[in-house]
Specification:
The complex is a heterodimer of chains A (231) and B (589). Helices cover 31% and strands 13% of the residues of chain A. The longest helix of chain A has 16 residues, at 215-230. Chain A has helices spanning 32-42, 102-110, 130-134, 153-157, 164-175, 183-190, 204-208, 215-230; strands spanning 2-7, 17-22, 61-64, 67-70, 82-86, 93-95, 98-99. Chain A is α+β, with helices and mostly antiparallel strands. Chain A has a five-stranded mixed β-sheet with strand order 2-1-5-3-4, with no helix packed on it. By secondary structure, chain B is an alpha/beta fold. Chain B is 34% helix and 21% strand. The longest helix of chain B is centred in the C-terminal third of the chain and has 25 residues, at 509-533. In chain B, 64% of the residues are buried. The chains are: A alpha+beta (231), B alpha/beta (589). Chains A and B meet through α3 of A and α3, α4, α10, α13 and α15 of B.
Chain lengths: 231, 589
């Protein structure tokens, strides 16, 4: 398998470059991450993040042949013989495939990502019907890998002002939670030409999400709630 | 001199236990530093699937006494019964708290938390009736819990040091109190000394010492290495849980919740073989029992596939609705890693290393304890441990499914509570640092920096993992154990001479991996030496030459010291806090 990988070490490189690697695979190497670990055994200076290697921790998001995805659940068999790897687009590169995610998490934090309920907690669990709980499906599963936000042109242009698909998906996760009492505060927080309305329904986020979530749908639901509130 | 920063408390690790402790400390408005090698939601708690145990009795009658009985029995009577009682009695409280924090548990029609059966969870002290005790968020319970805890820490303004790796403990030269840690900021390559009045290690397990493991890359036993290098012991390291259902060839976990929902294992004859090994509990016997049964089936030629090297987990009879509602993550994993859609096809599975029962010895308030003078359990001032890196010991020789997430929140919370008391008791400013503070770390980093040749980290690591796999598995044979100790010792000396090509300061992952290798080597040494010495079979430690449990000689905890590979032992706490001792019995399911 041939890999061309984006390399940049600010400690020694004047500018980024692509480096080619050839790696021999065996039958146990199923996923792109397996091949990358082999490359790193040859050249320990190649830097990338990885952890769970099963698509739940969100560490190894990168741009694979032009599309964002997780290396650990990208099957080698479904890739062409020559694969090009670049860091997630739109975020500053720290080194090689490692990007600075500060802006991404800042946006996530900006939506107050926690249930707000000011009633005194009952002795036992708060009740929620299975139907109410089902509203959270397709939302809470987000792994904060940033594949979606870094595939979104609106986020590229305004990463400081536009919450981005990942943050908005989570904003809706808390609005949709029957235990949360802060819907109106949450809507106030989003009613802004940039924070919410920079979403132009390009839907790159849906295409990029490795967990098959649909941020665009969640964003539309927030927009609907704002319209309803206005009339 | 390494730059020094001062805090009230340091938490090393941002998984379930670290973040639960941090929340307690941040809410008390202490200055806390939480160090994590990865962004908090990437910690390995995220991969837990099936549930968290609590006798809420939402679907079946249940009681903490029964939960305690199951845990004591599951532990094969090596668990400390005071700690087990403590955990089971606080289970309802901590799970309800998680719900109040916003954790998206599945629900029953009446709106209460959904609970499913799990291995070894029974009613009425081991009766054939199973208890539905595992509180679940589909099959993503760990993800739901970890994100919820992170969210609450965001709300509490906890200070995270993301992508910082703790390297060594700093101890007071007078009384041995732990006064902080040295750490590497990965992005800049700078070393720091972080000082605190209380330090919690919550660094998780070290399942990466094995070749086939459900564990993430980051599970390298960093806290264990730090403790071992600081001259403190590690407890019961011979006990490693092989989870019955890792995806064959890939190692990825398939939750026991599949069997809780009604799935079962088949051999090549299509036989539901667990009926022969555990007539009552069948596929929901304890994990050590199921893993041994599976290994026996494979050894006796009843494995599946062209190499007869795995078994099949059948769940298609549950129907697409149950699978999509309760086990969606499993379906995703199975399709990705086994090319099998469980709605139609069984999943090829094999016992896979999953959980470390042993670890840093603590009491149930998270305080690290070690022999000193006449006491076998003297408190090490300033040092705490919680979660998989710790050995309280609630899991003894074998952990019950869903007790791991419970362990994280109960002991994360109790550690946080005790740290608050300890910090309040130290109104004076921080202690003076010893003159050589941080020297050990600097020397380790300098050696790596200077080495111009040597062995590659990846080669030494692969040999270590293969060796542990071959010599210290589901069944253990005397000659393998002796050979294993010899091999690991050789590998340990090779690890002292590894070299890295990458000398960059910026995000040098080669350096991180080299530092992790040292921690893995300490963990593997502790495991191999402790296992070779224990001449009985108990829980996950099954020896061919001593097939029976030997309560007369071996109802005791192992303590391993790095210095000279010395072993010591200490008694099991057989007396619970309020109830009668649960006396050891023959363990059948």
């Amino acid at each position: 398998m041939k890999l061309s990988i984006y390399r940049y070490d600010p400690d020694k490189d004047a500018k980024p470059y692509m480096k080619d690697y050839e790696v021999a695979l065996d039958s146990h190497d199923r996923m792109l991450l397996d091949a990358m670990v082999k490359v790193k055994a040859q050249d320990d200076s190649l830097s990338f993040r990885r952890s769970c290697r099963e698509g739940v921790c969100g560490s190894d998001a990168m741009n694979i042949n032009g599309k964002n995805g997780l290396a650990c659940i990208t099957k080698i068999a479904e890739l062409p013989e020559h694969v090009t790897l670049r860091p997630l687009p739109g975020l500053p590169v720290i080194r090689d495939l490692i990007v600075d995610m500060t802006q991404f998490f800042k946006q996530y934090h900006s939506i107050k990502p926690y249930v707000i309920n000011n009633d005194p907690p009952p002795e036992r669990e708060r009740l929620q019907s299975p139907q109410e709980r089902e509203e959270l499906n397709g939302l809470y599963e987000c792994i904060l890998c940033a594949c979606c936000s870094t595939a979104c042109p609106s986020f590229w242009w305004n990463p400081d002002k536009f919450v981005g698909p990942a943050g908005l998906l989570q904003a809706y996760r808390f609005i949709a939670d029957t235990r949360d009492q802060a819907t109106s505060e949450r809507l106030d927080n989003l009613e802004d030409p940039y924070r919410l309305y920079r979403c132009h329904t390009i839907m790159n986020c849906v295409d990029a999400c490795p967990k098959n979530l649909n941020p665009t749908r969640a964003i539309n639901k927030i927009k609907e709630l704002l319209v309803k509130r206005a009339v | 001199m390494i730059p020094v920063r001062k805090f009230d408390a340091i938490v090393v690790g941002a998984g379930g236990s670290g973040m639960r402790a941090a929340l307690e400390l941040a809410r008390a408005e202490f200055k806390v530093a939480v160090l994590s090698k990865v962004f908090p939601t990437r910690s390995h708690t995220v991969a837990a699937q099936g549930g968290i145990a609590a006798p809420l009795a939402n679907s079946t009658e249940d009681h903490w006494h029964w939960h305690m009985y199951d845990t004591v029995k599951g532990a094969d009577y090596l668990g400390d019964q005071d700690a087990i009682e403590y955990m089971c009695r606080r289970a309802v409280e901590v799970v309800v708290e998680l719900e109040h924090m916003g954790m998206p548990f599945d629900r029953l029609e009446n709106g209460k938390i959904y609970q499913r059966p799990f291995g070894g969870h029974t009613q009425h002290y081991g009766s054939p009736k199973m208890a539905m005790r595992a509180c679940a968020a589909a099959d993503r319970t760990g993800h739901a819990m970890l994100h919820t805890l992170y969210q609450q820490n965001v709300r509490a303004n906890t200070q995270f040091f993301v992508e910082w790796m703790a390297l060594d403990l700093v101890r007071d030269s007078q009384d041995g109190a732990v006064i902080g840690v040295t750490a590497l900021e990965m992005e800049t390559g700078e070393l720091y000394l972080l000082q605190a009045k209380a330090t919690l290690l919550a660094t998780g397990g070290a399942g990466r010492i094995y070749w086939a493991t459900t564990n993430a890359f980051i599970n390298t036993g960093d806290g264990l290495g730090m403790v071992a290098r600081a001259g403190l012991p590690l407890e019961d390291m011979e006990f490693w849980q092989f989870h019955p259902t890792g995806v064959a060839g890939a190692g990825v976990l398939i939750t026991e919740g599949v069997r809780g929902e009604g799935g079962y294992l088949l051999n090549k004859n299509g036989e539901r073989f667990m009926e022969r090994y555990a007539p009552n509990a069948k596929d929901l016997a304890s994990r050590d029992v199921v893993s041994r049964a599976m290994t026996t089936e494979i050894k006796e030629g009843r494995g599946c596939g062209p190499y007869a090297d795995h078994l099949l987990l059948k769940l298609d009879h549950l129907g697409p609705e149950v699978i999509n509602l309760r086990l969606p993550g499993i379906r995703e994993i199975s399709m990705k890693f086994a090319n099998a859609d469980p709605i139609r096809d069984p999943i090829p599975v094999v016992p896979t290393v999953h959980y470390q029962m042993g670890g840093i010895p603590t009491n149930y308030m998270g305080q690290v304890v070690a022999p000193e003078g006449s006491s076998k359990e003297a408190i090490v001032p300033g040092l705490f441990a919680a979660g998989e890196c710790s050995c309280v010991s609630v899991h003894g020789a074998n952990r019950l499914g869903t007790n791991s997430l419970l362990d994280l929140v109960v002991f994360g919370k109790s550690s946080g509570e005790q740290m608050i008391k300890d910090i309040h008791a130290q109104p004076r400013p921080h202690r003076n640092l010893p003159k050589d503070a941080g020297e050990v770390t600097r020397a380790r980093v300098a050696r790596l920096e200077a080495a111009g040749s040597g062995e590659r980290v990846a080669d030494v690591l692969n040999d270590l993992r293969r060796s542990m796999q071959a010599h210290c598995g589901v069944f253990r044979f005397p000659e393998d154990l002796v050979e294993g100790v010899k091999r690991v010792k050789q590998i340990a000396s090779r690890a002292e001479r590894v070299f890295i090509q990458d000398k960059s300061k910026v995000f040098n992952t080669a350096r991180v991996e080299a530092m992790e290798l040292e921690n893995l080597v300490e963990t593997a040494m502790a495991t191999a030496v402790s296992a070779e010495a224990r001449k009985e079979s108990r829980g996950a430690h099954a020896r061919s030459d001593f097939p029976e449990r030997d309560d007369k000689n071996w109802m005791k905890h192992t303590l391993w010291y790095k210095e000279g590979d010395r072993l010591d032992y200490k008694p099991v706490h057989l007396r619970p806090l309020s109830v009668e001792t649960m006396e050891p019995k023959v363990r059948t399911y």
